[in-house]
Design brief:
The chain is built from no helices and 40 strands. The protein is mainly β. Strand 29 (about 365-370) and strand 30 form a beta hairpin. It is globular.
Length: about 525
């Protein structure tokens, strides 16, 4: 019996930021690097096939034959078509003495980036493809064979869909002789940076990677200090923990060529000299591998570059309701809306450059305008998503103002909510004293055209053990809201008590209908 040959398909995306878990294919899976459920950002422009020479290969995308050819043993195929955002089906068929084929589904998402202002998308990749300078050599292994640095998507530091990006070595590096720099992120502003600029990012390093910051205006140069992260140290001051995320923040005065540096909120440098600060238009963060007894990698997430928010920046955020504008409270938007109103003392009347991000992706705006009183009107193409991290980047008056908040609402679920005990508001778990009654005071809103039912649940915990429970089924008419109070008693004995309240679909699949409100 002839052994089944294997096709390995490598899909090269312009920006591959993250991938979902590998699907459960059989052990003789033909496609080894693209799995059901993979996510590619911005585009998918080519695939690479590794198959024995002489096979007649056909590539089919979404039921349409894209190309066919005779394999030469290692073929890179340009797809020749732009894939729209959404789910796509890829089928590879190879025919010779036998027929090999496999089909997988993957998703393409598009992530727009503002390339005109002094601001970089939080997606870590920014507005250029992750690339390399001069090659991807990481050194040699213990046998003297070449080790390479290869591009890789990593799980991000938070739940944002973009994930993290960076590189890893193909093997442990015994000697880093000849290692080359690899761009981890590159940002081009289109104009010369000036004044005070803040750069922030989260970074994780496995093994041993050397990390540095460079800028370009009149030629590339170190943006001080050189080899900022090296041999477990940051700027020679503090050690990071390999394999754990840590946060870096640079506050750079371009005009005075000085910077302050922070790691996880701790200031490591103050007024440190910055080289190559004049005429900067491009900022680059890059890494190269060093000798390590394990495979090394560097991952970057949540990269931002922008002017700091002025003390007289965005004073307030309001949202449009049926009764007019309502002020946003505690940086949480609890109602659906497609119109926002910002107030900023330094805003200049006229058009405003406002970019709205929802979970890291640009959310389309229809109109933005600044009134003479400094109010900035934003009309969105559709209502903001119900559960998302929102970022507003406003450029007016010569600088950037960044405002962030969360949306927390649903077509049907808990809207207004609060815990009460001992006759007053309950804010922290230490207020859950033995023997007291805990009340969840809430409204349930139904914004649909149908009557909806669900069950509100409140649980009291002693550590991981449930020690108190209350539940109430609620039915709310269409386009209506209803309030209720549910209560549970805290045990009389001493304990480490916490509480949570949420709403589920009590009749179908027990889906969570609203976020979990907790005291911990």
């Amino acid at each position: 019996m002839k052994l089944k040959k294997r096709i390995c398909v490598l899909l090269a995306a312009i920006l591959v930021l993250s991938a979902l878990p590998v699907f459960g294919a059989e052990s003789d899976s033909l496609i080894t690097s693209v799995k059901d459920g993979d996510v590619f950002y911005n585009n998918l422009n080519e695939i690479t096939l590794c198959i024995d020479a002489g096979y007649d290969v056909t590539i089919v995308i979404d039921g349409e034959k894209t190309t066919s050819f005779v394999s030469e043993g290692n073929d890179t195929v340009t797809l020749g078509k732009k894939l729209e955002a959404g789910t796509h089906t890829l089928t590879v068929v190879a025919v010779a003495d036998d027929v090999l084929s496999q089909t997988v589904k993957f998703e393409v998402k598009y992530k727009g980036v503002d390339t005109t202002g002094i601001y970089a998308n939080e997606a870590a990749i920014l507005n250029r493809e992750v690339s390399h300078s001069g090659g991807v050599n990481a050194g040699t292994d213990e046998n003297g064979n070449p080790v390479k640095l290869v591009r890789k998507a990593f799980e991000g530091i938070d739940s944002a869909p973009n994930g993290a990006v960076g590189f890893e070595t193909t093997a442990p590096v015994a000697s880093a002789s000849g290692a080359q720099d690899i761009y981890v992120a590159l940002y081009w502003s289109g104009k010369t940076l000036s004044g005070i600029v803040e750069v922030e990012y989260d970074i994780k390093i496995e093994g041993s990677m050397q990390f540095e910051f460079e800028t370009s205006g009149r030629g590339w140069g170190n943006f001080g200090p050189n080899d900022m992260i090296n041999r477990g140290m940051v700027a020679g001051k503090r050690a990071y923990v390999p394999g754990e995320w840590f946060h870096m923040k640079h506050v750079i005065n371009i005009d005075s060529a000085k910077q302050d540096l922070y790691m996880n909120g701790e200031q490591l440098l103050s007024g440190a000299a910055v080289s190559n600060a004049s005429g900067i238009t491009t900022v680059k963060v890059q890494a190269r591998a060093e000798a390590s007894d394990v495979r090394s990698s560097v991952a970057l997430d949540n990269f931002t570059l922008g002017t700091p928010v002025s003390a007289s920046g965005i004073d307030s955020v309001s949202y449009k309701t049926v009764d007019g504008y309502a002020a946003l409270e505690n940086a949480v938007l609890t109602e659906a809306t497609d119109e926002l109103l910002l107030t900023a003392a330094d805003a200049k009347a006229g058009a405003a450059n406002v970019t709205v991000f929802a979970d890291g992706e640009i959310f389309e705006t229809v109109k933005t305008a600044v009134d003479t009183d400094g109010s900035i009107e934003i009309k969105l193409s559709q209502e903001l998503p119900p559960e998302a991290d929102i970022k507003l980047v406003t450029q007016t008056g010569g600088y950037s103002m960044i405002t962030q908040f969360k949306t927390a609402f649903s077509d049907f679920g808990i809207s207004n909510f609060g815990f009460e005990t001992q006759g007053g508001k309950c804010h922290v778990a230490k207020e859950l004293l033995p023997g007291t009654e805990l009340f969840a005071v809430l409204n349930v809103t139904n914004n649909t055209e149908d009557e909806k039912s669900g069950m509100v649940i409140m649980a009291i915990y002693d550590g991981a053990r449930v020690v108190g429970l209350a539940a109430k089924s609620m039915t709310v008419e269409s386009s209506n809201a209803d309030g209720t109070v549910i209560t549970a008693k805290v045990p009389d004995s001493e304990g480490d008590y916490t509480a949570e309240c949420y709403m589920i679909d009590s009749f179908a699949k027990r889906n969570l209908l609203s976020k979990i409100y907790s005291l911990d």
